[in-house]
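Re: that backbone. Tokens:
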């Protein structure tokens, strides 16, 4: 199959002419179809008739490319490709390289991208970051963020919600003000490219019964923002400009932006552009000619094929260069071959070496991609991208249930998990990683039970999303930080935020977010998925504890070591038995201003006594069961430290005010 190396696939527009190029090496004939509008929609929001009165034959060019130049201004004209195959079949297809589309994404649109830029927009200007371990990732769904009635945001469920400043609910900040207050460095957006499973024409219709919510793991047009998050999905410019406004606002407030990308499968095969233009090329197939399904979503993209690899790399580069995206999270990265991931990382780091790249190092079902080519845990070693550490997730919350089981981990009431938790504390350098920069530590993500729902199931009872409306009924507010479930949440996140590696938090978990026991809410209602900002007001002390842990991590580079050598030299395990883990970060680790730091986790329901190192007379406590931060809460002049039930402590001995620890 021909390989085309050019970077001009799609439409190149200027005022005098537009050039269209599509890679279709097996086509008998390709015709450009132009339209004055998006077409007539049926009651499902789909266009059924794509016949055009303005058809222009394309010519075969080099390496399987078909090309045509139209010598007039085509701005805001809609277009498709009409592909005639050797067997006589004819398909109308959206351009796989389309950069603007009609509502619901069936037709491409010719636009002047310069006109989509907000004032002073600069995709090359990013908030500062030195090392991957400086990142604190916050996973967030765009609609969840603002759709709640108490969000304080006007642009509910939209990109523009991220541009609203000063938003509040009663006594607490919401929206982007909340993100700044919490202190995270990166927002990880669940899929924000154009996906199939929400009718963009019905999403704002209060009388429509069509689904208005989806996680978005149903790719349709990879290089276009999702229209349901725009104020006007029928305006091809709106979604692009508003996405850029979102990125610009986050950047202006010191927050980087990560896109969740799903190149492992598409929502459709026969109705999608890839198979219409080059049948059976873009997907993996078995020996009988059937599409394989390693994604468990109906198909899997053949990333190892040269033009598929090129498409994926072209796509991520486009998001970086045009939109200023700062990182990518790869869904089912195990299905993306390791050569593609390595080349992709190299290409992105040529643009900016601080672009963060990570993903899920597993597959969902059997695949014909040989195991040695799958991007699994360990394959990322020394390749400058990271993978999720589900080992530590399971050890902390549920060793046997992929994070959702009723079995209990270190922080949720289980036993004998110290060894695996310690592997995570070390950034997996004795497990699957050669560097802590390759390890994403977490306890919950969008497709797990929220950590609060998990501890409720372990301690009290399993929640039923169809019946339970009061998932916090087990908390007495006057005893908030003494509640067993709350303590277990704080301990779980405390481990993540004081471990080596890259910490990752799911939105709202910092104030006990609940989805009523629903761990797979991919198409559930807003009532299940929305962030309830009133919980932040109600459980402000829980939020403040998380805020303090984040401030501690950002202020002290000892928690953010960047090499295996640093960790081996400076992290010492003091105790690891009977649901107690204690370790020391020693000798001004990573140029910290604190000489020695002790971190202790007690997962027992009873208080415990820990023997501190003999060579220090006094210790300053900065984290205990009630508060977390960077300032000393008290000083201990003893070799024995009492630690409260289900809690953590962080202590330091000497401070040298040389500024080395500033972040």
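Recovered sequence:
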């Amino acid at each position: 199959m021909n390989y085309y190396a050019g970077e001009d696939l799609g439409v190149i527009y200027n005022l005098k002419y537009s050039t269209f190029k599509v890679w279709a090496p097996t086509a008998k004939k390709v015709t450009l179809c132009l339209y004055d509008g998006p077409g007539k929609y049926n009651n499902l929001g789909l266009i059924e008739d794509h016949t055009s009165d303005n058809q222009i034959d394309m010519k075969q060019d080099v390496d399987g490319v078909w090309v045509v130049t139209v010598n007039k201004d085509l701005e805001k004209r809609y277009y498709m490709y009409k592909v005639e195959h050797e067997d006589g079949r004819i398909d109308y297809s959206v351009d796989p390289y389309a950069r603007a589309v009609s509502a619901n994404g069936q037709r491409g649109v010719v636009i002047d991208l310069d006109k989509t830029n907000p004032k002073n927009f600069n995709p090359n200007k990013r908030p500062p970051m030195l090392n991957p371990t400086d990142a604190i990732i916050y996973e967030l769904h765009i609609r969840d963020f603002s759709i709640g009635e108490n969000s304080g945001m006007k642009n509910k469920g939209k990109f523009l919600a991220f541009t609203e400043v000063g938003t509040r609910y009663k006594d607490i900040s919401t929206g982007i003000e909340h993100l700044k207050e919490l202190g995270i460095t990166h927002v990880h957006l669940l899929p924000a490219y154009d996906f199939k499973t929400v009718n963009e024409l019905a999403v704002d219709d209060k009388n429509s019964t069509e689904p208005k919510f989806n996680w978005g793991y149903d790719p349709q047009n990879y290089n276009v923002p999702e229209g349901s998050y725009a104020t006007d999905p029928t305006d091809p410019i709106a979604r692009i400009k508003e996405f850029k406004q979102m990125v610009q606002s986050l950047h202006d407030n010191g927050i980087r932006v990560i896109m969740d990308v799903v190149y492992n499968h598409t929502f459709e095969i026969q109705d999608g552009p890839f198979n219409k233009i080059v049948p059976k090329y873009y997907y993996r197939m078995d020996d009988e000619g059937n599409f394989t399904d390693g994604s468990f979503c109906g198909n899997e993209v053949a990333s190892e094929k040269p033009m598929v690899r090129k498409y994926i790399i072209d796509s991520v580069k486009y998001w970086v260069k045009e939109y200023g995206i700062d990182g990518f999270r790869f869904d089912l990265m195990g299905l993306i071959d390791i050569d593609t991931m390595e080349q992709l990382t190299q290409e992105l780091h040529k643009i900016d070496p601080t672009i963060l790249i990570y993903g899920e190092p597993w597959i969902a079902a059997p695949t014909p991609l040989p195991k040695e080519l799958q991007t699994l845990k360990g394959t990322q070693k020394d390749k400058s991208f990271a993978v999720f550490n589900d080992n530590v997730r399971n050890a902390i919350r549920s060793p046997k249930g992929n994070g959702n089981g009723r079995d209990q981990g270190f922080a949720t009431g289980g036993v004998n998990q110290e060894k695996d938790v310690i592997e995570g504390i070390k950034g997996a350098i004795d497990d699957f990683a050669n560097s802590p920069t390759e390890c994403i530590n977490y306890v919950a993500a969008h497709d797990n039970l929220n950590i609060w729902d998990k501890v409720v199931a372990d301690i009290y009872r399993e929640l039923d999303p169809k019946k339970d409306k009061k998932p916090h009924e087990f908390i007495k507010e006057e005893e908030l930080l003494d509640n067993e479930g709350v303590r277990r949440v704080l301990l779980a996140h405390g481990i993540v935020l004081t471990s080596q590696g890259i910490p990752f938090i799911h939105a709202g978990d910092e104030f006990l977010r609940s989805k009523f026991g629903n761990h797979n809410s991919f198409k559930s209602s807003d009532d299940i998925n929305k962030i309830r900002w009133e919980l932040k007001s109600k459980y402000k002390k829980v939020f403040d504890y998380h805020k303090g842990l984040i401030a501690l991590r950002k202020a002290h580079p000892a928690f953010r070591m960047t090499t295996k050598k640093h960790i081996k030299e400076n992290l010492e395990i003091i105790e690891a038995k009977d649901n107690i883990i204690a370790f020391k970060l020693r000798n001004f680790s990573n140029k910290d201003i604190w000489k020695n730091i002790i971190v202790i986790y007690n997962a027992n329901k009873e208080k415990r006594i820990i023997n501190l190192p003999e060579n220090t007379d006094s210790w300053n406590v900065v984290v205990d069961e009630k508060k977390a931060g960077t300032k000393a809460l008290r000083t201990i002049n003893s070799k024995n430290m009492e630690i409260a039930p289900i809690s953590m402590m962080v202590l330091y001995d000497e401070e040298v005010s040389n500024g080395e620890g500033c972040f």
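The radius of gyration is 26 Å. The chain has a mean pLDDT of 97.
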